């Protein structure tokens, strides 16, 4: 008997595609352009960055290996149009690109939260990328991959999370230098607990910036409880 004939059930390529997942949950989108929509979140495990203010450190390690078929089926079970793929850093797992395409093929309106440190050029163009640019107080500004800006589509968004006046001035310069507001929607959001949201709002008004101020809605609603 040949060794191949002793193998158990054959696996299709789709079944073989697995991703490490921290959680899948059904909530209200708390960030970016899709804010307020009922959304299923798929949080991929692992991140090569360490932003000092990261609110999702629990996604750095652990998680469960899940097949893409299984993930797509669990997402569908919630009956939501919107799906947000986040992490950790979702693009750190190469097969995330397959998941994104499968979710689009299943008819979902898909967004991707990404740090801006990994190449976004291969992301399915149907996906709305929400790409951070990391400001200096994150401790990870050196990781910004500026070439990503050239891959942004009009439906994408650039987000800068701001912890101080110095971060704000950096963000204002980055928007001007790279003409970001002409390319897509630009979001400025305060680091939760670091600056008064009102200060950031007033700076934006004073400087007449064409950026969208944003607070994380889920933190107002659920105060950072897991699963929301
Ligand atoms: C947890 S990250 C996961 C996706 C990806 N790693 C990234 O950084 O975009 C999702 C979003 O939450 C934001 N975020 C994380 N911690 C935050 C905090 N303390 N206050 C405000 N936004 C925060 C990030 O900047 C990012 O826009
Ligand atoms: N409700 C809710 N909305 C979110 N939008 C982006 C999130 C994230 O952690 O990436 C997030 C999250 O964790 N919860
Ligand atoms: S890139 Fe995203 S997940 Fe990673 S440390 Fe920064 S905010 Fe957290
Ligand atoms: Mg979050």
UniProtKB/TrEMBL annotation:
<keyword id="KW-0411">Iron-sulfur</keyword>
<comment type="subunit">
    <text>Homodimer.</text>
</comment>
<dbReference type="GO" id="GO:1904047">
    <property type="term" value="F:S-adenosyl-L-methionine binding"/>
</dbReference>
<dbReference type="InterPro" id="IPR024924">
    <property type="entry name" value="7-CO-7-deazaguanine_synth-like"/>
</dbReference>
<dbReference type="GO" id="GO:0008616">
    <property type="term" value="P:tRNA queuosine(34) biosynthetic process"/>
</dbReference>
<keyword id="KW-0408">Iron</keyword>
<keyword id="KW-0004">4Fe-4S</keyword>
<feature type="binding site">
    <location>
        <begin position="28"/>
        <end position="30"/>
    </location>
    <ligand>
        <name>substrate</name>
    </ligand>
</feature>
<keyword id="KW-0456">Lyase</keyword>
<feature type="domain" description="Radical SAM core">
    <location>
        <begin position="34"/>
        <end position="224"/>
    </location>
</feature>
<dbReference type="InterPro" id="IPR007197">
    <property type="entry name" value="rSAM"/>
</dbReference>
<feature type="binding site">
    <location>
        <begin position="53"/>
        <end position="55"/>
    </location>
    <ligand>
        <name>S-adenosyl-L-methionine</name>
    </ligand>
</feature>
<keyword id="KW-0460">Magnesium</keyword>
<feature type="binding site">
    <location>
        <position position="54"/>
    </location>
    <ligand>
        <name>[4Fe-4S] cluster</name>
    </ligand>
</feature>
<keyword id="KW-0671">Queuosine biosynthesis</keyword>
<feature type="binding site">
    <location>
        <position position="43"/>
    </location>
    <ligand>
        <name>substrate</name>
    </ligand>
</feature>
<dbReference type="InterPro" id="IPR013785">
    <property type="entry name" value="Aldolase_TIM"/>
</dbReference>
<dbReference type="InterPro" id="IPR058240">
    <property type="entry name" value="rSAM_sf"/>
</dbReference>
<keyword id="KW-0949">S-adenosyl-L-methionine</keyword>
<comment type="similarity">
    <text>Belongs to the radical SAM superfamily. 7-carboxy-7-deazaguanine synthase family.</text>
</comment>
<comment type="function">
    <text>Catalyzes the complex heterocyclic radical-mediated conversion of 6-carboxy-5,6,7,8-tetrahydropterin (CPH4) to 7-carboxy-7-deazaguanine (CDG), a step common to the biosynthetic pathways of all 7-deazapurine-containing compounds.</text>
</comment>
<dbReference type="InterPro" id="IPR027621">
    <property type="entry name" value="rSAM_QueE_gams"/>
</dbReference>
<feature type="binding site">
    <location>
        <position position="51"/>
    </location>
    <ligand>
        <name>[4Fe-4S] cluster</name>
    </ligand>
</feature>
<feature type="binding site">
    <location>
        <position position="88"/>
    </location>
    <ligand>
        <name>S-adenosyl-L-methionine</name>
    </ligand>
</feature>
<keyword id="KW-0479">Metal-binding</keyword>
<protein>
    <recommendedName>
        <fullName>7-carboxy-7-deazaguanine synthase</fullName>
        <ecNumber>4.3.99.3</ecNumber>
    </recommendedName>
</protein>
<dbReference type="GO" id="GO:0051539">
    <property type="term" value="F:4 iron, 4 sulfur cluster binding"/>
</dbReference>
<feature type="binding site">
    <location>
        <position position="56"/>
    </location>
    <ligand>
        <name>Mg(2+)</name>
    </ligand>
</feature>
<dbReference type="GO" id="GO:0016840">
    <property type="term" value="F:carbon-nitrogen lyase activity"/>
</dbReference>
<dbReference type="GO" id="GO:0000287">
    <property type="term" value="F:magnesium ion binding"/>
</dbReference>
<feature type="binding site">
    <location>
        <position position="47"/>
    </location>
    <ligand>
        <name>[4Fe-4S] cluster</name>
    </ligand>
</feature>
<comment type="pathway">
    <text>Purine metabolism; 7-cyano-7-deazaguanine biosynthesis.</text>
</comment>
<dbReference type="Pfam" id="PF04055">
    <property type="entry name" value="Radical_SAM"/>
</dbReference>
<feature type="binding site">
    <location>
        <position position="86"/>
    </location>
    <ligand>
        <name>substrate</name>
    </ligand>
</feature>
């Amino acid at each position: 008997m040949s060794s191949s004939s002793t193998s158990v059930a054959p696996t299709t390529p789709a079944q073989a595609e697995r991703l490490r997942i921290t959680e899948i949950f059904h909530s209200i989108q708390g960030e970016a352009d899709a804010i307020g929509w009922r959304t299923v979140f798929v949080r991929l495990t692992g991140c090569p960055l360490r932003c000092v203010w990261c609110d999702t450190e629990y996604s750095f390690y652990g998680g469960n290996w899940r097949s893409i078929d299984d993930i797509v089926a669990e997402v569908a079970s919630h009956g939501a149009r919107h799906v947000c793929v986040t992490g950790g850093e979702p693009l750190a797992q190469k097969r995330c690109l397959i998941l994104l395409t499968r979710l689009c093929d299943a008819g979902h309106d898909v967004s991707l939260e990404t740090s801006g440190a990994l190449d976004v050029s291969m992301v399915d163009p149907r996906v709305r990328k929400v790409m951070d640019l990391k400001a200096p107080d994150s401790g990870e500004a050196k990781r910004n991959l500026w070439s990503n800006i050239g891959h942004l589509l009009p439906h994408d968004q650039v987000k800068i999370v701001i912890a101080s006046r110095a971060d704000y001035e950096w963000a204002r310069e980055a928007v001007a230098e790279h003409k970001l507001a002409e390319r897509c929607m630009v979001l400025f959001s305060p680091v939760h607990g670091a600056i008064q949201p009102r200060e950031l709002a007033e700076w934006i008004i004073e400087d007449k910036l064409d950026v969208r101020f944003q607070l994380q809605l889920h933190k107002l609603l659920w105060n950072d409880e897991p699963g929301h």
